[in-house]
Amino acid sequence: MSKRVMLIANSASMIDHFNRDNINILSSMGYHITVAANFKDGNSSTREKIASFKQELEDKGIDAIHLPIPRRVTQLTKMFKSVKMIKDYLKENPCALVHTQTPFGGVAGRLAAKSFRKKDGTKVIYFVHGFHFFKGAAFKNYLLYYNIEKSLSKCTDCLITLNHEDYETATRKFKKTHVEYVPGVGVDTTAISMLTVDKKEKCKELKIPKGKKIVMTMAELIPRKNVSATINAFAAAENEDAVLLICGRGKELRKLRELSKELGIKDKVIFAGYRTDILEICKIADIFLFTSYQEGLPVAIMQAMAAGLPVIASDIRGNRDLLAPDKDSRSKDYLVPVDDIQGFTEKLNYLLKKEKECEKLGEVNMANCRKYFDIELVHDRMTEIYEDMLREG
């Protein structure tokens, strides 16, 4: 059997943020790794960070291939080119495993690997970071994405889901595919709990006025993340003694700046951009507010939970898995319908006044994160799946 594996994703930032442990697992198993992704466009981190990540991979002996994988369905030329590039690579470098993820990366990888499943015995894993057809999604999502996923499930050896709604959908709809559940990509709850931060210095760095409560969010600034709702909810809240800290970059930055200006809270909203110190920021924040329309299992909320923050989040797939991992979790009371701005504001007002409730919620979130979403749990599950997929014979 070949001792090569290939990891494919839409963007290099997806590999950087969500696959470092997978790379470590496969390396420890003795496999030579190739990473194929778009290293130029569509990344949620900076060009400098992506260039540094690519260099890091190459320094470890990992091949890094740029693919022009698109983020829009209409860019078919880039998709076809990506499929051809992967096929050409697999012809010259047979792989025991092709691990695909993200919608377009999943399509390109599985189409390219299809013929090699019989020819070379290549196994194909598709890690779903959230189906685009989900409860509440537009009908066109079902019409397009469901049919694509159903067709490609027939050339998928293992389909991994990271939330319970997607797991139930996959087991019910894709009966010819082996389906596994893995609790996201996990976070290192021990390291986060031990992290200490000089709050005064960090606030000074972020230009946060002394004595202000910090409501934070972290998201790519794109429509799907619905950051405008976060700003609207904060604007309507009793925010005299608070600031809203927004971590992330994206095409909606200018629009969101204008919104904060229109709502008269320009001086209370801090756009911090892409940050490499998110965990430190979580440690100095008071409340985490997350109003996204669509998620798989958001690492942003996991990090906030592990840091002991109370979380107010949209009541959607993924967020529910995190804040309501069991029926008795008090954190489930802070799930709000995604379009209910008033509901977000009411929860925010309550927590801004109730320091004790914030502490209790933070303790619950920290305990749940450790119990259900720790990196060691994910590491063990992914190791089992890889060993099963790569078992000779």
Structure in words:
By secondary structure, this protein is α/β, with parallel strands linked by helices. It folds into two domains: 199 residues, Rossmann fold, CATH 3.40.50.2000; 184 residues, 3-Layer(aba) Sandwich (Rossmann fold). It is built from 17 helices and 13 strands. The strands form two sheets. The protein has a seven-stranded parallel sheet, sandwiched between helices. A six-stranded parallel sheet has the order 10-9-8-11-12-13, with helices on both faces. Strand 9, helix 11 and strand 10 form a beta-alpha-beta unit. The model has no long low-confidence stretch (mean pLDDT 94).
Number of helices: 17
What is the number of E strands? Answer: 13
Please identify which CATH superfamily of the largest domain we are dealing with.
Answer: Glycogen Phosphorylase B
* CATH-defined topology of the largest domain: Rossmann fold
Largest sheet: 7 strands, parallel
Portion of residues in beta strands equals 15-25%
SSE sequence, one letter per element: EHHEHEHEHEHEHEHHEHEHEHEHEHEHHH
Structural class: alpha/beta
CA distance, first residue to last residue: 9 Å
- As a whole number of angstroms, the C-alpha radius of gyration is 21 Å
Roughly what percent helix? 40-55%
Side by side, the strands of the main sheet go 3-2-1-4-5-6-7
Query: In CATH terms, what is the architecture of the largest domain?
Result: 3-Layer(aba) Sandwich
> Which CATH C-level class of the largest domain is it?
Alpha Beta
Could you say which overall geometry the principal axes of the C-alpha atoms support?
A: globular
